[in-house]
Fold these 3 entries.
Entry 1:
Amino acid sequence: MHAQTRRLLDLGLQVDADPGPPPTEDAILAVHHEVVPAADLAVLLRRGDKPGFVNVDMPDLAEFVPVPEVTIPNRPLYWLVGIDRGDDLQSWSPEEAAPELASRGRSPLTVHEGISWLLQRPEVLEPSSCFMTIASRKPKARPKGAYDARTPAIWISGGTGRDGRETKGAPKVGWCWWRNRHTWLGFASVTRRV
């Protein structure tokens, strides 16, 4: 059994699938979005002694699904190859970053993939260098092809507002507006999914 699969089991996830060997040394094991709800994965995140959480303003996180442009392998567990936090795109909006990533031959991460990455590599989440997961969007009923204006992101809670002081320093799954820019959020992406 691969160490990353063992890590998921140690966290309490019931994963009985074998993803096979990693295609590259730095590949990251992702949990398919239909296997475990993102909110259930988020609470398994840790930064020091702080557990992860979902922003109170995002009770509909389960409705954020992979966009059609992203092909997710039809397996409970799969590999992410060439993952990058996208720090060079800080201060870009999701609307601006999406075509830029595509022009580089890269695919943005879904929120499940972003959480999966941090479950294996919690040190990736750093102050002033966190990331959006813009391959997850919430479809709107109409017009056809339209999305909710929010996009999921993962950062470190400041422990302010409705988050509560006790969350300061904890991994947080929240959201940002599709057309807003943030100096401390990059755009996580991969070269391929296997």
Entry 2:
Amino acid sequence: MTEKTKKTSPATSPLLKDNSDGVTTLTMNTPARLNGWTMQMMDALKEAFLIAAGDAETRVLVLTGADPYFCAGVNLAATLRLGHPRKLHAMIVEHNRALFDMFLDFPKPILIAVNGPAIGASVTSATLCNGIIASEKATFSTPFAALGVTPEGCSSIHFARLMGEVNANRMLGSEGWKPTAEEALEAGLIQWLAPHDTLLEEAQKIARDWIDSQATRTFRGGSILDELKAVNASESQALADAFLSTPFIKAQFTFLWSKKKWGPAAMFLSMLITRPLWSRFL
């Protein structure tokens, strides 16, 4: 008999939670914002991960998104706040490192069920989990080169281990390759492909198989935790440097202005105009 416990799904919650037969499923639930990682979403994920880590009824964690997107990545306009340059730099380092350490330090198997487009940190963090299953509607994009920033989420070393140097460079470099789910499966970025309508059903089967086989928390590609944590720390420093560079700030302003997001665009314009002054204090 199937036993369900601890099901919560208020429509206004940024993160829906459900536990069934030892499998806890978290669903990012801000589809109007493409499930982007705002501070609210990241705080909700952090709390849910902490609870699941200590919950005896959670044997496997599944993370997915409310259609149509899986996740549009970190919403910079909703997370960056103007302040003293050194404090801002330190905040970027701390938040980026903590985001990926949340995945790295989770002590139980994690399965990512990608239901739609996945961008940036939502892709790199997924590769730090035990496995990735995707629907045919999924795509995978890591547009770091286009944004003028450095790789994050350990992708500087981990991508090549999963899919080879050529494909890693295609995704992380200037080509900006955005593989479909089928292409991602062929390349080795993901392990399973499922029809969109049965994605979560298939994810549950995999998770229960892991429970039956007493699977433990592992990392793909032969990577080990201590190494990945060190890479994450190093990448976070480099990323903070890039985020405060002129090319990145200008690119963010141009993008946000083109989307008529006047408030966030104004923040980056202010940073751009005043950068010659505040950059002296980095």
Entry 3:
Amino acid sequence: MSKVIAVDLGAESGRVASVEFDGTRFFVEETHRFANGPVTLRGTMFWNILHLWQEISTGIEKAKEDAASIGVATWGVDFALLDRDDNLVANPVHYRDTRTEGMMEWVFERIPRREVFDRTGIQFLALNSLYQYSSVLRRTPAQLEAARSFLMMPDLINFWLTGEKVSEFTDATTTQFYNPLLGDWDRQMINRLGLPTHILPTIVQPGTRIGAYQGVPVHAPACHDTGSAVVAIPATSPGFAYLSSGTWSLLGLELPKPVITDETYAANVTNEGGVEGSFRLLQNIMGLWLAQQCRATWRAAGTEYSYDELARLASEAEPFRSLIFPDDPSFNLPGDMPSRIRDFCARTDQPIPETVAQVMRTIYESLALKYRHALDHLIRISGQTVNRMHIVGGGSKNALLCQMAADAIGREVVAGPAEGTVLGNAIVQLIAVGALTNVAQARQILASTIDAVSYQPKHREDWEGAYQRFRRLVPEASQ
């Protein structure tokens, strides 16, 4: 029996899990779970990183007996700056903070938009590290003067665990200043923006031993949580797409190399690093953030709904009454999401969703149709054949959304494992300690042991008609 510890930080919650492997199957035990949310101070939205460190330490202490390894995975794009004494220069800022407003335009005045894509292959999102890093230079330059180290969020946790400063490959690729053709940071591009490059750490591959924490080795898994989730796809043959479904929905294909072409640039898709030399051609979609913010709004108004209740209500509502474009900028920030959804429907001359059931039906159907839109783009760009889509992560437990996804894309959807990020994190560690040979072996084991649920497409004509309506809501730049 081999045992590893998987630390999984998501945008809504964090957890520490013990994963055991007996040679034939995986056993996951969540040893510690904790809330994760932003803290707003003087108009800036921060991560409560010291709270997260305290909770991670507590979880590891509970799980560390007989552990062969520890691995950390978090969301991408966010980072911390350390001074010469290795103290935080400032609290790490949340990717939904408004400090990146206008920063894409500022960057493109210095480096053409197309050149940025050709150098990095990464989708243009205002929250990318490139624009966050540039905003530090423009808004708080004294922080850069004091900075001696730049660490992405999982790299910061790994530094606090081991004392070693490195940057893990899959997370580094989310910055939009990693160059896959160079296999390193694009220092020339960063220098042209006036940003320091000497504070960037060495990049290491998933599976690298970073150091040890209280005698337990610390290995880098795919430190970007989507990279870990994709490792745990129970696929035994090619021809699949994946959807990592959580706060964000990340829909993509696993490819041997990045695809940086006119088509990928026009479609605004991204090439993020994967394990064993792979790349993930994918598109970021707003995801269950919409449902999370609606739930928070209704809770603040005095009514608490579970996610199961929200799905049940949505299932009983009239289909295709109203649709939204999930990636509309009005949905980016925390706040009264039901009102924003109503405003969007009013702007687009659609019936206003008034009830909780109508709002949730609008969200789920619109997400499923966006999955179809993104998948069509990826298939056309890559030339890949896609027979089915695997959904991993917390969203795989939402049977209504999984069925809608199958209906929208017209292909089988295989849902599970829900613990995809934890399992993928653990699998890379288990390969590193010699308990597994490679990802293909792990996927074969998952396919034969997990309780995945298959959804077959239904009501194709209805969904095709809804898709044509949805396409009219898609901005021209995203068509």
